[in-house]
Amino acid sequence: MELSAIRLLVEAEMRAVDEHIIRHLRSDVILINQLGSYIVDSGGKRLRPLLALLSAKACGYADTGHIGLAAIIELIHTATLLHDDVVDDSQLRRNRETANAIWGNEAAVLVGDFLYTRAFQMMVDLGSMRILDILAQATNTIAEGEVLQLLNCNDPDTTEASYMEVIHSKTAKLFEAATQIGAVLAGRPEAEEQALAAYGMHAGTAFQLIDDVLDYRASAEQMGKNVGDDLAEGKPTLPLIYAMRSGNEAQRDVIRKAIEQGGLNRLDEVLDAIESTGSIAYTESVARREAQLAASQLDVLPDSPYKEALVSLTRVAVERQS
């Protein structure tokens, strides 16, 4: 099943999610409306709300509560992007200027805070302590992951295990929450809830690993951000970590200095090291393993088009080019 067909399964619900987001972003503060609308209109893959909708449907949920939950998930994600772009001093996302590039860092941070707090207001309105607990834990873990990543920046001695801990916290945790709450909404047994949570964690990990690959493969237009951003920021992602571990002394020295100093002055040499050590192939193999682990978690669910869509998304995560 292709991504377009997957989206068609919940097309009406995704429109309802967008309407829900727009309605809850309204504020008496004009800047919040301007910046919030800019972020929502910038598009993006909307994978996390898509996963929330599909997981609920795959678990047999037949009401409309998943609409609000998917909107909450997207608001939390958008808040993290606003803060990320400030921390990374990013100027481009999704082929558009970042909010901080247009309105400044102060406005981007504060509107990010607004999105977080609005998301929690919406959680309280749901009246479910179980869902509030899952999303509060996820938001806290994401913040920890951001700090862990900051500690790893410009550190060439970052290990693969340390990096995997970062992406489990920073990226995969919200995928996990998105899929777990589908089972919670549907009132499914604990075993199914945990299986859906594990699905989201593994799928989110696979997605981030392919993002790491694309930073050294795709064009800026394909990625919607500047190629080499991770290297420029001194972020030791898995392609770099593996190339350092497997390269010769000269290659290790080049990568070590690139991570320590940031910037793209020796990008060609770094790319040569990544290519010659098989670093991209290794990272893709780890992503495929995570995708397979994700798909295997769904054996607890009855067959349905929604289950098939969740399985297909694990393939989409590792085969995508942007």
What does this entry look like structurally?
The chain has helices spanning 3-9, 11-25, 30-41, 47-58, 65-88, 99-103, 105-126, 129-152, 160-185, 190-214, 220-223, 229-232, 238-246, 249-261, 267-276, 279-296, 305-319; strands at 92-93, 96-97. With 322 residues, the chain is mostly helical. It has one domain (3-319): Orthogonal Bundle (Farnesyl Diphosphate Synthase). Strands 1-2 form a two-stranded antiparallel sheet. A hairpin with a 2-residue loop joins strand 1 (92-93) and strand 2. Helix 9 (160-185) crosses helix 10 and helix 13 runs antiparallel to helix 14 (249-261). It is globular, with a radius of gyration of 19 Å. 46% of the residues are buried.
* Broad structural category: mainly alpha
Mean pLDDT: 91
Quote the distance from N terminus to C terminus: 18 Å
Helix-strand pattern: HHHHHEEHHHHHHHHHHHH
Quickly give the CATH architecture: Orthogonal Bundle
Overall tally of structural domains: 1
CATH topology: Farnesyl Diphosphate Synthase
Q: Would you identify the regions where 5 or more consecutive residues have pLDDT less than 50?
A: 219-224
* Broad shape: globular
Secondary structure: number of strands: 2
Q: Specify the CATH class.
A: Mainly Alpha
| Strand percentage | under 5%
Number of helices: 17
Summarize this, please?
The chain is mainly α. The chain is built from 17 helices and two strands. The chain has helices at 3-9, 11-25, 30-41, 47-58, 65-88, 99-103, 105-126, 129-152, 160-185, 190-214, 220-223, 229-232, 238-246, 249-261, 267-276, 279-296, 305-319, and strands at residues 92-93, 96-97.
